[in-house]
């Protein structure tokens, strides 16, 4: 057995093992559609040709109805832009438009044919309606791409996961237990599970989502509440499942921006009662009108990618429509607010004058102290300073001098910024084989307001 053959075998075994591991740990982020084909009298129609097509990518899959008239399509990407064609001898072709595939559900879509000849057809619009899942015991609530973007609660706090709070059988945690996402079915939030594109998204330290997901990149969000299947065995609370967008045959993009600013915001009653005003009185306006800024800006773009071509004409590229797609997005979040005021105790002007006359102090340290330490405007107390070495922690009589000191307050800054990047690639190799690659990056930076100076 030559080296090349051994290497091929080793790679094949590794790929099989990897595929098994991935299959064992992957969680369902697609949906299924099934139904029964019948004639006008309700009798089943076997061997009917049934084709489902995702209109945005022209990805089509065909099957035949069984002897019981049943058909089923599995592992379909969630969305409402599918159509189903049903063809059978002696019947008109039936087309069902705007069929909605729901995340983690098998939905029933019956197809009743009418008598007719070749070339005749009937079109029915499903309208993207949510159909009933009669094949599993899942209790779930799905939210579409439009709901995720337009419902206000997705732009704050936990983002898209906030949608769970408007689902039945879900309430806020009320401060009970560790975790986030609300109490699902009366359980503690720490029992919740978070998944993005089939990948674990749990922060093990706080029992909540590990990575931020922008509402603008969400294709569908689903909350499974109970009776879910074995692939969701990690947690017995709510299953918070998010699927991000894919590209299509048409080039589409979005640019968006949201801004809240203290100069644009109206003052509420509590601010007025606290003496907050807009007018410049004596000093800067910032001294009277605390900072309160929030910005969310970004954009996304998706469409087909060219495919490489190898042939007699030499290497080149051809359109990737119906085959290869990309979706990329960038978003920046930034906040600025008036933090709690900080304070230190420093010498007054008289205290600095006294310090500068004391013998034995380091000249370099004293110069730095004079340059960078602010002067207290008002004396609030006196710091006793021993001019000689203490004996048994007691300063000898007549060797103590008082240093006048007072408080100095300053504004504590509070600012955060976050950059979020997504890159999704989808490749349809055949009607039975598809490849999906997902990459997300969150870069967060903020001021460490809990930092302290080192102490001895």
Topology:
Blueprint: H1 3-25, E1 31-38, E2 49-54, E3 59-64, E4 70-76, E5 79-87, E6 93-101, E7 106-108, E8 111-112, E9 121-125, E10 139-144, H2 145-150, E11 170-171, E12 183-184, E13 193-196, E14 199-200, E15 202-203, E16 208-209, E17 218-226, E18 239-244, E19 252-260, H3 269-273, E20 292-304, E21 307-309, E22 316-318, E23 324-338, E24 342-347, H4 349-355, H5 363-372, E25 381-386, E26 400-410, E27 413-428, E28 434-446
Could you walk me through the main structural features you see in this protein, from its secondary elements to its overall organization?
The chain is mostly beta strands and 456 residues long. It is 11% helix and 41% strand. It has helices at 3-25, 145-150, 269-273, 349-355, 363-372, and strands at residues 31-38, 49-54, 59-64, 70-76, 79-87, 93-101, 106-108, 111-112, 121-125, 139-144, 170-171, 183-184, 193-196, 199-200, 202-203, 208-209, 218-226, 239-244, 252-260, 292-304, 307-309, 316-318, 324-338, 342-347, 381-386, 400-410, 413-428, 434-446. The strands form eight sheets. It has a five-stranded mixed sheet, with no helix packed on it. Strands 10-17-18-13-14 form a five-stranded mixed sheet. Strands 19-20-23-27-28 form a five-stranded antiparallel sheet, with no helix packed on it. The radius of gyration is 33 Å and the shape is elongated.
């Amino acid at each position: 057995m030559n080296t090349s053959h051994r290497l091929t075998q080793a790679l094949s075994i590794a790929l099989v093992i990897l595929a098994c591991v991935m299959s064992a740990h992957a969680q369902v982020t697609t949906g299924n559609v099934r139904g029964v084909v019948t004639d006008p009298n309700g009798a089943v129609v076997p061997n009917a040709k049934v084709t489902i097509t995702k209109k945005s990518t022209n990805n089509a899959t065909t099957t035949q109805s069984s002897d019981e008239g049943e058909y089923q399509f599995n592992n379909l990407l969630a969305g409402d832009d599918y159509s189903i064609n049903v063809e059978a001898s002696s019947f008109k072709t039936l087309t069902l438009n705007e069929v909605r595939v729901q995340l983690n559900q098998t939905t029933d879509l019956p197809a009743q044919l009418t008598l007719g000849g070749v070339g005749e057809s009937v079109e029915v619009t499903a309208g993207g309606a949510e159909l009933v899942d009669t094949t599993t015991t899942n209790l779930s609530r799905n939210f579409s791409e439009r709901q995720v973007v337009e419902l206000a609660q997705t732009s704050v706090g936990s983002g898209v996961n906030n949608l769970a709070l408007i689902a039945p059988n879900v309430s806020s945690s009320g401060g009970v237990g560790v975790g986030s996402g609300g109490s699902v079915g009366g359980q503690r939030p720490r029992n919740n599970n978070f998944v993005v594109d089939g990948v674990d998204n749990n922060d093990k330290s706080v029992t909540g989502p590990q990575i931020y997901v922008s509402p603008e990149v969400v294709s569908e969000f689903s909350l499974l509440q109970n009776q879910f299947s074995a692939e969701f065995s990690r947690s017995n609370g709510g299953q918070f499942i998010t699927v991000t967008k894919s590209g299509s045959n048409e080039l589409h993009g979005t640019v968006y921006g949201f801004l809240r600013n203290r100069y644009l915001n109206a003052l509420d009653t509590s601010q007025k009662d606290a003496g907050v005003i807009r007018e410049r009185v004596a000093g800067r306006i910032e001294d009277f009108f605390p900072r309160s800024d929030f910005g969310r800006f970004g954009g996304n773009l998706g469409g087909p990618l060219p495919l490489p071509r190898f042939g007699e004409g030499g290497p080149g590229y051809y359109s990737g429509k119906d085959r290869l797609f990309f979706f990329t997005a960038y978003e920046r979040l930034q906040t600025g607010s008036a933090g709690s005021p900080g304070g230190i105790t420093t010498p007054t002007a008289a205290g600095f004058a006294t310090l500068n006359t004391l013998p034995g102090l380091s000249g370099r340290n004293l110069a730095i102290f004079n340059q960078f330490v602010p002067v207290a405007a008002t004396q609030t107390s006196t710091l006793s300073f021993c001019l000689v070495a203490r004996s048994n922690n007691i300063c000898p009589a007549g060797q103590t001098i008082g240093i006048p000191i007072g408080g100095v307050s300053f504004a504590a800054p509070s600012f955060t910024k976050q950059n979020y990047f997504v890159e999704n690639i989808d490749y349809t190799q055949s009607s039975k084989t598809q490849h999906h690659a997902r990459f997300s990056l969150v870069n967060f930076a903020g001021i460490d307001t809990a930092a302290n100076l080192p102490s001895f």
